[in-house]
Amino acid sequence: MAPLRTSELLAALSVALDLTEGQRAGHAVRTCYLAMRLADRLDLKPAARSSLYYAALLKDSGCSSNAAAVSELFGTADQQLKGRQATAGRSLLAMAWFSVSNLPAEPLPRRARRLINLALSGERERRDVEQLRCSRGAGIARKIGFSDEVSEAIMTLHEHWDGHGLPQGLRRDQIPLASRIIAVCAGLDVFSTDRGPALAVGVIRRRRGSWYDPLLTDHLLTLCADGVLEDLKASDLKAQVFGMEPRGLVQMSTDTDIDVIATAFADIIDAKSPFTGRHSQNVARIADGLASRLGLPDRDRLDVRRAALLHDIGKLGVPNTILDKPGPLDAAEFAIIKRHPELSLRILEPIAAFTRVAQIAASHHEKLDGTGYFRGLDAESLGMSARIVSVADVFEAMTADRPYRAPMAREAALALMRKSAGSHLAAEVIAALNDSSALPKAA
Question: Which of 104-108, 155-159, 232-236, 300-304 has the lowest mean pLDDT?
Fold first, then answer.
């Protein structure tokens, strides 16, 4: 396969990060566009522009790691909460109002206990949650192979010019320039998308010298006066962003690089819930072993592994109040869960190298008799690759250790799966699981 532009892969996958943050799809791409326009005004050198470019696309790569904690702390959907938090103030009064207005509709005693807990430990919890998010995001960037400058920009993204940001309380030039650029550009896009351009410009102006670097704010406000927020509405914005990579420093991803990025995003997916552990990695390991055992060609085997790594990327758009619910889901909640394969398809399909990967990933809850979701595909429409990922997904879920239950023994899991062979799951793939040589050893 011909090398793929790394920016095209990250821009597509960043949509999943936007969903996790409660932002409109394309937030990271729009932020990247604004950041590169600001880089033009600052006449940044190519190396600095390159670091800024990739840090902007990956700025929220740690966002899934604090989703469960945020949801547990407030008792409400994490995406909704994060979306509101992105436009909240930071004063004690603003934080108090934010806490009160975002508590769920619970019995009064329970609401009171939750509010007291937020009052007593809110600042510490906020700092811990932000530390987790930032360090995890920086680690993802390093895992993919980006420079220390990219990782540092992600690590310090929520620091403020006056030293009242999180998690370290850095101030002024202690905060890397790339981070300061991304912060003000991301803020402008969030407010512009949520409340309109005029209000967004007003907020950015008011936060000059407190949240944001005054010089960068002035440059960005000049761009706003020149119509940059209208530019964000261009139908070819993504193509424009791809054209903004510094010449001579455009990064291309080989098959090996694509696998590294897919593996890193599998980590992001699994970090969304404490119940998923290394689910995506393990499904990929099992699916790859089955594909080998069943004699799939190397190209098909590669697609199976990538689809398995990314099959649950749509779950980044599902609230943790549903993903982590201890009891059975109601009809409305299950309807939301059933959307995640469709979200996986929408996220992966725009990637040219993932045409088959997207279809395989989107089919992991389909059943041979047509009773699965989200498209109700039947045996005639489900090829061997999709059948393998479905079986690997079910087997891993049954045999994995979870905080709420012990793992099911291999033979017990296989016995249950055989009962659905031919109707829900592929009998020939289940048969391959009988041979332990089909499965590589756990990492």
Answer: 104-108
CA distance 221 to 198: 11
**Rounded Cα distance, 176 and 380, in Å:** 55
In whole angstroms, give the CA distance from residue 426 to residue 40. Answer: 55
Q: What is the pLDDT of residues 109-149, one digit of tens each?
A: 776 776 666 665 666 777 888 899 999 999 999 999 999 99
Delineate the domains of the chain, giving CATH numbers in brackets.
Answer: 4-252 (1.10.3210.10), 255-438 (1.10.3210.10)
Which residues have a catalytic role annotated? 315
* pLDDT grade for 374, boundaries at 50, 70 and 90: very high
Contacts of 274-277 spanning 24+ positions with Cβ under 8 A: 274/68, 274/324, 274/403, 275/323, 275/324, 275/402, 275/403, 275/404, 276/312, 277/400, 277/401, 277/402
What is the rounded average pLDDT for all residues in the chain? 92
